[in-house]
Design a protein that fits this description.
13 strands; 26 helices; mainly alpha; single chain; three-stranded antiparallel β-sheet; 5% strand; 698 residues
């Protein structure tokens, strides 16, 4: 009771005071501020309040009161509103609306002396925050606690910022003319979220004719800011990185990390063992050289860069590569130069860019060098990875506008679709991805054992069971999406040359498994009354998918081929392979060309026969465009260009077109199963009324 007495006395005093202020029911004319009574709380509180993670926070940059990030405005007397969001406690709370003001803006300058404190990140607003608006205006939704980090670690500019300025100054087309009104645009520091979300945030300057990686997922357990960084010390959880990256013992070692999804030589220095960090620095050096050359030769003034001195790019009047007294911000900007400089700065100012989204940065650097066209030799550089990890390519970016990969495509075009299909035999909508993850094919994110697939059901309904489960795993995707059965169904009940209005049936890409198993998978359109080759047995140890192809790069292991094919030393040499007893399939008299040449010769004959047949049947010549869906078009005016989707099909023409596409979209068909492919091409030529005299059908 003694402990409660002071509190009871204080409550009674306040009650009396309030009653006195409201005597007679009159409203007070002004706010009455009652100072709290000085009450001794000894004995009421047994121990001082413990602040969780206090020491961890005190060791971080967020708590460093003497840092430039918090002292820059000392002479001004307050942190200006434009900067307060990320450089003061009050500004951050103002921006997110935790102070009762509208969210999304800072209404006033913030007082000096604060840092990023506990209540900055822990309050009623942040606890339910799930989205972030990036400088591009794009809102990233469905986030977790990382949304708190991303409010600041997103940069202050974007592709939209630059494009808006170019439009204002009339520089959208005239990209090489110096503008006195154009200045360097700075993304600002530590824009980790812009790097990590790639084209989903458009933090970098993305060139209009290019596509870019999106969100970098890394692996399942390490996808977000706070998965990888301690949220209070901000340090990388290096000891957890070592679970997969065994050579990593400290932060510096992270620069040496290179995963199996990054097996190309991005910077062209011949070293594909170095970490992705060093691939990036190699491209940064090349881009800086290109910037300097372009600035001197096109913009008309030498340029230099100093990472520590605003505005970073300066006019290097004496061209000595150093910022000297009297040299100021670079003034001879063109739109082309401004884009490249922006991307260079973005790559520099996120010191963890190689881990946050290295491939996105690599693409920006590569494209900037290419766009400047300043004499840099790029012949050995690589912009993208091999197929399964080529995140910027159509196979993975096709669904960006939809926000998710459709269920019908998710098995092979997302990171999680294939495991779900293998485990539960279903396909559902999946998040977009930058290619496969380790767990797409492996049971663990650390690699090791792969999914064991006993058999594969092809689109035809036929079931194949390769002796090697890994081949079955590959063929779960590399089987195409259509078959002889689908074509037969589309033409059922129609005469061979009966015209009907319909749509082209597409086998899809890289149906290598269907090719290899031939009639046992029935991937191609097979003609009634004909027989077709089945499984193509090569030789061991090169008779299964992963025996011929590197499982991660998908490249053919040429050294194995050279064991029997002595003239083969490069991938290009594979097209020259020809056994001594190989017939002259295409009848061109060349018995020295590789089997690939024989297949190409037959494709040329088939295409000519299809054009002649289509013109006779429908009056419109068929035209093929391998890069534009639905691939076959009607060339109504005879100018060699398709005008509209081809629709006047006959059963014979549909089978022939299907087979032409089939042979075109499996670039290794000549090696996967040449007899089968030759058979379907020759039968298609014959169905088109083309001459097969001199052709040899296996």
């Amino acid at each position: 009771m003694k402990k409660l007495l002071p509190v009871l006395l204080m409550a009674a005093a306040l009650a009396l005071l309030l009653a006195a202020c409201s005597a007679g029911g009159a409203e007070p004319t002004e706010e009455v501020v009652v100072p709290p009574p000085e009450i001794e709380l000894t004995g009421l509180v047994e121990a001082p309040l413990a602040v969780p993670f206090l020491e961890a926070w005190q060791s971080s940059g967020h708590a460093d009161k003497e840092a430039e990030a918090f002292r820059h405005w000392d002479e001004d007397g307050s942190v200006e509103a434009a900067c307060a969001r990320c450089h003061s406690e009050a500004g951050y709370q103002d921006y997110i609306g935790a102070d009762g003001t509208p969210a999304g803006s800072v209404e006033a300058n913030a007082p000096l002396g604060s840092t990023v404190t506990c209540v900055t990140c822990h309050n009623e607003v942040t606890i339910t925050m799930t989205s972030v608006v990036m400088p591009s205006g794009i809102e990233l939704t469905g986030l977790g606690d990382e949304a708190r980090c991303m409010q600041c670690h997103q940069g202050r500019a974007s592709k939209v910022t630059l494009d808006t300025k170019f439009e204002e100054l009339g520089l959208t087309e005239d990209v090489d003319t110096v503008s006195a009104d154009l200045r360097f645009t700075n993304i600002h520091y530590f824009a980790a979220a812009a790097t990590k979300y790639g084209t989903a945030a458009q933090g970098g300057y993305e060139y209009p004719d290019k596509t870019y990686d999106g969100f970098f997922a890394h692996v399942d357990d390490y996808r977000t800011c706070i998965n990888c960084h301690n949220p209070h010390t901000l340090e990388v959880k290096v000891e957890e990185c070592a679970a997969c990256h065994e050579d990593v013992q400290n932060v510096e070692d992270l620069k040496n990390v290179r995963m199996y999804g990054s097996l190309v030589d991005y910077d062209g220095d011949g070293d594909i063992q170095e970490g992705v960090y060093y691939e990036m620095t190699g491209l940064q050096e090349a881009l800086y050289a290109a910037i300097q050359t372009y600035a001197a030769d096109v913009a008309g003034a030498p340029i230099g860069y100093d990472a520590d001195t605003y505005p970073y790019f300066y006019g290097d009047a004496n061209a000595n590569g150093a910022l000297d007294e009297g040299e100021e911000g670079y003034a001879n900007w063109t739109a082309r130069l401004a884009k490249a400089a922006y991307n260079y700065q973005m790559s520099i100012k996120d010191p963890g860019a190689f881990a946050h989204g290295g491939k996105y940065i690599i693409e920006l650097l590569y494209d900037s060098i290419e766009d400047l066209n300043a004499g840099i030799d790029m012949s050995a550089m690589q912009r993208i990875d091999n197929g399964h990890f080529a995140g910027s390519e159509e196979a993975f970016r096709h669904w960006d506008e939809d926000g998710a990969v459709a269920a019908t495509c998710s098995r092979c075009h997302s990171a999680y679709g294939l495991p779900l299909f293998l485990e539960q035999a279903v396909a559902i909508e999946q998040p977009t991805a930058n290619g496969f993850l380790c767990t797409t094919c492996h049971l663990s994110q650390a690699g090791g054992d792969r999914y064991e697939v006993a058999q594969v059901t092809f689109p035809s309904g036929l079931v194949v069971a390769a002796e090697d489960p890994d081949s079955n795993l590959c063929m779960s995707c590399h089987q195409g999406r259509s078959s002889a059965v689908a074509v037969d169904k589309a033409v059922a009940g129609k005469g061979n040359d009966e015209v009907f209005e319909g749509r082209f049936i597409n086998v899809h890409y890289f149906a290598a498994g269907a090719t290899r198993y031939g009639s046992q998978a029935a991937g191609a359109a097979q003609f009634p009354g004909k027989t077709y080759a089945g499984l193509f047995e090569h030789v061991g140890p090169a008779n299964e998918c992963a025996e011929c192809h590197n499982a991660h790069t998908q490249q053919v292991q040429v050294d194995k081929c050279a064991t029997c094919h002595e003239t083969v030393s490069t991938n290009a040499d594979l097209a020259t392979i020809r056994a001594e007893d190989t017939p002259d399939y295409d009848g061109d008299g060349d018995t020295a060309e590789g089997v690939a040449g024989e297949v190409e010769g037959l494709k040329e004959l088939l295409y000519a026969a299809m054009q002649s047949y289509s013109a006779d049947v429908s009056g419109a010549t068929i035209y093929y465009n391998p890069g534009a869906y639905p691939y076959f078009f009607a060339d109504s005016d005879g100018d060699g260009v398709g005008d509209a989707n081809y629709s006047a099909w006959t059963p014979s023409l549909l089978r022939a077109a299907y087979n032409y596409q089939y042979a075109s979209k499996d670039p290794g068909a000549f090696a996967h199963n040449a007899p089968y492919v030759v058979q379907i091409l020759i039968d298609s030529i014959q169905a088109m009324g083309g001459s097969i005299s001199g052709l040899v059908r296996p």
